[in-house]
Amino acid sequence: MEDLQNLGISQFTTMPTSVQEKNVFNEPNNQSGWQVIGRAFLGLAVGGIIAALLFVILTFIGGMFITALGGADATGGLASRPNPLLPLILLFIGFLSTFIGNISVSGLYSLFYGKKYTNATKTFGLLLLTNGILFFILAPIYLVFSKDVQTLFIVLGFHVLFSVFISACQVEFSSNPNYSGSAFMGNIIGFAAALLMYAIIYKSATTGDTQKQTYLLMLLPSILGYTLIPLGAGLREKIYYKFYEMGNNGFFIPSPSDSGQILTGEDKLRNEIEDINIEG
Questions:
Q1: 26, 111, 138, 273: which is deepest, by most CB within 10 A?
Q2: Up-side HSE of residue 115: CA atoms within 13 Å toward CB?
Q3: Residue 206 and residue 208: Cα distance in Å, rounded?
Q4: Three-class SS of residue 22?
Q5: Residue 1 confidence (pLDDT) above 80
Q6: Residue 67's Cα: distance from chain center in Å?
Q7: Nearest to 220 by CA among 67, 66, 55, 109
Q8: What's the confidence (pLDDT) of residue 211?
Q9: What secondary structure does DSSP assign to 106-171, as a single string?
Q10: Half-sphere exposure of 39 toward its Cβ, with a 13 Å CA cutoff?
Q11: Residue 78: phi, psi to the nearest 5?
Q12: Residue 12, pLDDT above cutoff 70
């Protein structure tokens, strides 16, 4: 020990125990049941607002959709073919509803769950980049099915749900990257539930009134996505934390800078001695 003090590293012997021991382990999130329900209701509120905005849009251009779906046109006859601008309109509706909604959800999370969601600026940039990339990826798909109106609405529903799913994953990854795999599984559960419900509603809506069909296919994806995907992620957190309390933490992904263990003063001292021996 005297040799170490002569070498100028005696601070290791006087360092308090609370400072010597540093736990670099990151435990999973453990939100309460009310917080999980609150996130779902926040998503429902955002989805409802987006649906209300789309409803206003439909009041002005709803005739285009009704005509495209086989309803009566302006002359009272049946539509012969869809409006050529319909795929572009649906593309922009899908982009705006998802981008505005995802940004709103991220901002509300930072406001009400600030201890978990701390990096709002970085998340905003990721969401902007993601939704922009999805816009250009899905644009050719909208154009390919421009003459198949029923398929266009399926593409729109998938566009909204998939964008909400990817954005939710990025929000969770940025908040706690060590459990990104577990968060991905939870979001998949919510995404699958939303997609299944949309498919069931779509199947029943295609046999009903044309105007009702239009409103359902346009308004439901945002409500389902923003509600069920956060709910699935929250339930996953609760279930996974129960396994964590029982000693199972199989989905933990250590950061490159983490040692994965508790570093004590003795460990630091031993590492310093090894470094001195190597240099000597």
A1: 138
A2: 4
A3: 6
A4: strand
A5: no
A6: 35
A7: 55
A8: 63
A9: HHHHHHH-TTT---HHHHHHHHHHHHHHHHHHHHHHHHHTTT-HHHHHHHHHHHHHHHHHHHHHHH
A10: 26
A11: -80, 150
A12: no
Q: Which contiguous run of DSSP H or E holds residue 214?
A: helix 210-245
- Residues 68/82, Cβ–Cβ less than 8 Å: yes
Four-point Cα dihedral 152, 95, 197, 49, nearest 10:
-130
114-164 per-position pLDDT tens digit = 777 877 788 888 888 888 999 999 999 999 988 887 788 888 889 999 999
Provide the 3-class DSSP secondary structure of residue 10.
coil
Residues 26, 3: Cα–Cα separation, whole Å: 36
Helices 210-245 + 180-205 axis angle, to 10: 160
Distance set, CA 55 to CA 47, 140, 213, 218 (Å): 12, 26, 13, 8
Please, which residues have CB within 8 angstroms of residue 194's CB and are 6 or more apart in sequence?
A: 161, 164, 221, 224, 225, 227, 228, 229
| Total-model pTM | 0.73
Can you tell me whether residue 72 is helix, strand or coil?
A: strand
Nearest to 163 by CA among 250, 246, 65, 94: 94
Question: Does the pLDDT at position 96 exceed 50?
Answer: yes
Q: How far out from the chain centre does Cα 178 lie?
A: 16
Nearest to 185 by CA among 160, 165, 199, 200: 165
Length of the chain: 280
Residue type, 100: I
Q: How is the chain split into domains, by residue range?
A: 33-71+86-246
Distance between CA atoms of residues 206 and 137, nearest Å: 27
Q: Please name the amino acid found at residue 132.
A: G
- Phi and psi at residue 72, to the nearest 5°: -75, 140
What does residue 148 show for φ and ψ, rounded to 5 degrees?
-110, 95
